[in-house]
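Researcher: Going back to the complex we discussed earlier. I've cleaned up the inputs and rechecked each line, so this should be the final set. Can you rerun the prediction on the complete assembly and write out the structure?
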Amino acid sequence: MNDAERPTPEQMLARLKAEGEPGVEERRRGRLKVFFGYAAGVGKTYAMLQEARRLQAAGEDVVVGYVEPHGRPETEALLAGLEQLPVRQVPYHGTVLREFDLDAALVRRPAVILVDELAHTNAPGLRHAKRWQDVEELLAAGIDVDTTCNVQHVESLNDVVAQISGVTVSETVPDDVFLRADELALIDLPPDDLLERLQEGKVYIPAQAERALRNFFRKENLVALRELALRRTAERVHVDVQTARTGRGALAPWATGERLLVCVGPSPTSAKVIRAAKRLANALQADLMAVHVENAATARLSEKDRSRLLAHLRLAERLGAETVTLTGDDLVTEALQFARLRNVTKIVIGKSEPVRGWFRRAPTVTDRLIHESGDIDVYVIRGAGEPHPETALKLRGERVPLSAWVGTAAVLLACTAVSLLWWELGWTEANLVMTYLVGVIVVGARYGRWPSVAASILSVLMFDILFTEPYYTVIVEDSQYAVTFLVMLSVGLVTSTLMTRIRRQAVLAQASEQRTTSLYELSRKLAALADTRQIAAFTERIIAEVFDAEAIVLLPHDGSFQPVVDHRAAFAADASEIAVAQWVYDRGQPAGRGTDTLPAARALYLPLTTADGTRGVLAVRHEDADRFLIPQTRRLLETYASLIAAALERAELIEESRAAEVRAETERLRSTLLASVSHDIRTPLAVIAGASSSLLEERGTPVEPSLRRELLATIFDEADRLTHLVENLLRLTQLSAGKFQLQKEWHPVEDVIGSALNRLKRSLQDRPINVSLPDELLMGQFDATLIEQVLVNLFENALRYTPHGTPLAITGRPWHRGIVLEVADRGPGLVPDEIDEIFETFQRGRSAPADSRGAGLGLAICRAIVEAHGGQITAANREGGGAVFTLELPADGPPPVVTLTHDPEGAAT
Amino acid sequence: MSPSAPAPLVAIIEDEAGIRRFLQAALVSHGFQVREAGTARDGLRTITDEPPDLIVLDLGLPDRDGKDLIRDIRGWSSVPILILSARDQEREKIAALDAGADDYLTKPFGVGELLARIRVALRHRLQSASDHGGAARPSTYQCGPVTIDLAARRVFRDGQDVKLTKREFDLLATLVRHAGKVLTHRFLLREVWGPLNTQETHYLRVFVANLRKKLEADPARPNLILTEQGIGYRLADPD
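Model: Rerun complete. Updated structure for the full complex:
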């Protein structure tokens, strides 16, 4: 919004057309053709239908979406050969309204669709409030639209038409929609011919509006309207010609062109000023900005004024203006500051009525603006008087709380008490007056204008009654006391005015600081969050705090659309609300309560959009639907939405890159695994195949019995090795798939040592094995099958890397958190540098002999198993040579007590 | 096997032809008659046509769950069933044993191991038949230095009397009655502690540890009461 170089839509579109630039919008946008006329009955619908027939004849897929036939036979005849979409029947207050069926049109998806009456207002309950919004959606869906429109429906001409014809048209189309039309076909008919047709009854006029419309169809009206339509079309043609001429250079107008600023207020004439500004902007092909200055006075606007102000801002928005709300005490200063900041060349303002000052005519806002504007042109639009809201409000004043009056009374009583003291002491009257003056200053400073006025009057009265002759009467004998009174009153007023101004500024500064702080906090916190859920939860909380509203972040998930955080909030559970969110997500446009789209929804839905598209939807609900219509609030909310969207995008990117990392790592593991496993499988297979084939082919020369046994033993050993390899692979898959359920139970440690040794009985035959366990039964809490696997792997590892015949040792001992197991050998030990790496998958000890086997899986599995138990496995070199592997296995608590009843039996005693 | 007795008939139900072939070769060369089937359906037909003395059943048949088949067979026959399974199938093994299988072998296995299991199973078959008038069940058990006299409820190690508690003796006696066969934790708990105590497996483990302490030379490298990890215990075959 704040990009100074942002082209207006029509310029953008013009440029697109000029360059034929593809792919700016992913989906081709449909073309809009408007059949434009100056009044009903000139033949727009007829011309549109004729064109449809022509297109149909040329083989185009043309469908009539909606046409008001008005029962005219010519129109009916043209309609006859065309495909028509069924009309949507909407029940409304006992009657049935016939409406264009947008959804049916989107489903049918013709190449070209005819939708009559662009300015039509839809029946309540339909998705959009206005038909032009339906058309926008059709265009966005890539469907070409033919439509009709009369000049009086163009928003910026609305008041001009009202002036000419005396009829105010409430159905209007924003200028932008109209200007963005790809083609404008002017359907013209001389007014005399039109009137003739009217006489012949060929122009449809609704019965209820007949009188008003009869009035409308006066020749002078029609001539003026015709001129307006022709001029409008000419302007449009001028733009087309320029675009065609400048080609790529179409960038220039918006970079250096004029910029208009219009000041918007709550006054009823403001609308007129805005339209005038838009017309001026159109003529100059300039950007239009609408500015409203928010200050303490506007914050206290009446309900009516506020809603009018909102209506004006929305009007400006509809007219394609960028609306800005500024905060500051002085309209002129703020507006000019903004204008200079944004390189505004012209300011448009309504004429303000002079306000009567106490002594002289105070300069009006207009006067000051002209005086201070410098090189910016100021256009003053005549209106029925535009008092500046602040000026208007000053006189109405603010409500004074009861406590202020009580405080005022207390101050006056105190002053009187002190004055009485001076009086008793016999001090002069001047001291008494000064005392009261101090009281008035205090009241003015603390309680504001009206209490200070009251205090001035009361002070003079008290002084008069108590301290001047005749005592205890109100009669002022000496006229000099009038001066005392005036001085007190003016001092009170000046003090209270100054204080009020300071207070207002403080309140405004505080509000603006609060917003800045909350935005800062939001962006700072969001930057620290990398998880979608966290972002959503945090966002919801902070929006609830700042806007005092229920907020929900909805994101697409597995094809459905749902809140990220579980919600008790009833509105998010509603399927129809989710449908609104889905619409917002699909179109990237806000909808719901307080907007023109699906206004019946219970919440306002804002798209969370980034450059890459819509990430999700922010739903905000507040009891007061108008709350989010205040541009300032709305804009702040939109700023929040964009911050959230950026955070979500970042979180998604982080998640994606993390997933990619995991994929890459998995891929790397897989390839290493394959390479290493295939080697480890192929070697034993080769041995088995070789040994068995030499036995099979012994026919010629019989194999010696001892060699025969040796070959058979080799085959068996290799098969055994393969079995272990497969078992390890299976365990690894189970563990890494995470679907393994740990069966943690209490086991005597000797039990698992025994079963592990038993499994390796054959290969451990020639090894002295020293098992050392405490005398007390040592119990550990673990999954025995897995720990057996760990021990088997450690023993196999020791067998592989240590010379034949060297001893192995296994030790079990209690540990404060469970048990510790140690498997030790007297081999060459570990290379110090690689101790940390040996538990990595597929890392083979460098000290391994060249022909050693084993995929290096063994230790990786050991670590995975031990870590699954919450323990850890470490390796170290032993004193006196060899390696030691230490397993720490924690338990959830002390081992269960098993009572062994001592009832000896079967004994021979 | 006495020479006069007919060769025992073993039915092999296994879908892998390679394993079937090797089993058949090994068993025939050790004096067994063999019938083969590759599916549960064929297997059922084989054993109903000609009731075998023992069934070797693979748990991973393509057409039917092995446990189901065991339950089916147990409906009408008490023929010993020996199951073949992989190491990581503890749960299935336990389920199959609970369903009525007599013992299991973990693939891959050696012929020696297979023959030992078959011998044990056939012996137990004869003994349980003895309860109905068949061969007598021996009342003493001898393995290495340990002698157990079930009738006298006495246990000797190297000729020395070993004092056992009543529970320990009951546990040992249960193991002796099924010597050579795997007994699941659940089975042992039910037999010794009664039907309500089938979950407190650590009780059983502590009792086994105590028995080992009293009977084994090195309790961490037992020769008598062997651990079948994740399944249960097995008492070594008597000498």
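Model: Worth noting: Chain B touches chain A through 38 residues (CB under 8 Å).
Researcher: Good, that matches what I expected from the previous run.
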